[in-house]
Specification:
The protein is of the alpha/beta class. The protein is built from 16 helices and 11 strands. Helix 10 links the parallel strand 5 (about 215) and strand 6. The chain binds nicotinamide-adenine-dinucleotide (NAD).
């Protein structure tokens, strides 16, 4: 990754392509439309609200992030996507029951105009869903071509300068990477032969990367986290990032665990359970889809707490995560955590968390930030994995052989230093010796 000498300005319109137009995607689209009309505030978004310190604490320079790096405005965004259900974004948002009817009706015309293109869908990858808005081709390479045609048409119809994609589709069943994913050449042969190891999300990602469109993965399924698509993203110099938006319970975990560890407090057990009743919850009720989520949710504590280094504190920790599908709760998830701590001389303590959150309300600003930062990465000439966007993910993608950084505060420092580095600003180490010289 080279420090950019210049970042291309965000001229013209940016297309935001969303494979999967359910609760998260429509909450993001409707929210962006409301925010750009100043009908509701874009709370939770760094690209819209956060400031960044530059130089010394005494310099008094703290511009908004969007004044440091060139980002498109909300007015420059055009939305599109794919779904196996034909509902337009207004209808899908009404079904998702996240935003109020008053909010949705305020942007009804614009929202209704966002209609899903036909999906690439194989039921063996998402077992609980059946829909009719599906592409008819059966060969996987032909499906790639159909998605590429969609992207070109969307670009031409909307007079777009650039596009970026954020996967907001259902979680696909858990798969280990296999031979077909091990190189680009094998993957392309696999597409021609419709290899069963190639999932719908991989077909979208391959097609989008070939079209020069950056791809952010909001779900835990592998998709671009395989050597073949990493190779393609590097070859085409297109950014990729993932996996799995870090929203409710895992966000809390990556806030709390670094704090407990920083004080060298031990943990004997961490039990997390959730009830949720949206379509995501229904899909995750299938054990194979839940397996993808479980892997992503369990990984965070391991890398934060380093049990291999701190055996006495975390070597025996029992970590359990459960998700229960409970329809009455809809998108308004409830997440409980029980943490069994150990302190000085081994004395036990407990922490209980009851987080009454709204899944899609937490995820929507992440989609916005990822779309804008992935576009920034593209304009700065960064291809391949964008590890500086780990801040947004439960299971951050890293260079092969590198362990991910899951501590939210290190992730934020990394993100901000990356923005400073892009603009040739001094990096902030927080040593601060110069104030005392
Ligand atoms: N909301 C959160 O807090 C959160 C956090 C982390 C990850 N996620 C992930 O984000 C994704 C979206 O969540 P959601 O709550 O919007 O779910 P949702 O079920 O409301 O929406 C997913 C949509 O994807 C569509 N879909 C599935 N397979 C598709 C395919 N192959 N092509 C096109 N469309 C397809 C479904 O029809 C559905 O409309 C899920 O994978 C979820 O696990 C959500």
């Amino acid at each position: 990754m080279k420090q950019p000498t210049e970042i291309k300005p965000p001229e013209g319109k940016l297309g935001v392509l969303l494979p999967g137009m359910g609760a998260v995607a429509t909450t993001f689209v409707a929210g962006s439309m409301l925010a750009r009309r100043k009908l509701a505030p874009p709370i939770g978004s760094l690209t819209e609200l956060a400031h960044i310190r530059l130089g010394k604490r005494t310099d008094g320079r703290e511009p908004a992030i969007r004044d440091l790096v060139p980002l498109p405005g909300l007015d420059d965004l055009v939305f599109g996507g794919w779904d196996l259900f034909p509902d337009n974004a207004y209808e899908a948002a009404r079904n998702a029951e996240v935003l109020s009817v008053e909010h949705l009706d305020a942007v009804r015309d614009e929202l209704s105009a966002v209609t899903p293109m036909e999906a690439v869908f194989f039921p063996e990858f998402v077992k609980r869903l059946r829909g009719e808005n599906i592409k008819k081709q059966t060969n996987k390479m032909e499906l790639v071509e159909a998605v590429r045609d969609d992207v070109r048409r969307f670009r031409a119809d909307n007079d777009l300068e650039r596009c970026v994609a954020v996967w907001c589709g259902s979680t696909e069943v858990h798969h280990e990477p296999g031979e077909v994913h091990s190189s680009l050449a094998k993957f392309e042969q696999g597409l021609a032969k419709s290899d069963p190891g190639i999932s719908p999300s991989m077909i979208y990602a391959y097609a989008l990367l070939q079209e020069g469109v950056g791809y952010a993965n909001g779900a835990p399924n592998l998709t671009t986290d395989i050597p073949a698509l990493l190779e393609l993203s590097q070859e085409r110099s297109v950014p990729i990032s993932g996996k799995d938006f870090k929203t409710g319970q895992t966000l809390m975990k990556t806030i709390l665990a670094p704090g407990l560890k920083s004080r060298m407090l031990g943990i004997r057990g961490w039990f997390s359970t959730n009830i949720l009743g949206n379509r995501d919850g229904e899909v995750l009720d299938d054990p194979d889809s839940f397996k993808s989520k479980e892997v992503s949710k369990l990984g965070v504590l391991e890398t934060i707490l380093q049990p291999e280094r701190y055996d006495a504190l975390y070597g025996d920790m029992y970590h359990k995560v459960r998700i229960e599908y409970y329809p009455p709760r809809g998108d308004q998830k409830e997440g409980w955590d029980n943490i069994d701590l150990i302190g000085w001389l081994g004395y036990p303590m407990q922490v209980k968390i009851d987080f009454l959150c709204r899944d899609s309300i937490l995820a929507a600003p992440i989609v916005l930030d990822l779309a804008l930062f992935m576009d920034l990465a593209q304009r700065a000439g960064f291809g391949g994995i964008q590890e500086w966007l780990s801040f947004y993910y439960k299971s951050p993608m890293t260079a092969p052989g590198l362990y991910p950084e899951n501590d939210l505060f290190i992730q934020l420092m990394k993100l901000k230093n990356m923005l400073r580095w892009m603009k040739g600003e001094e990096l902030i180490t927080h040593v601060g010796h110069e104030y005392y010289d």
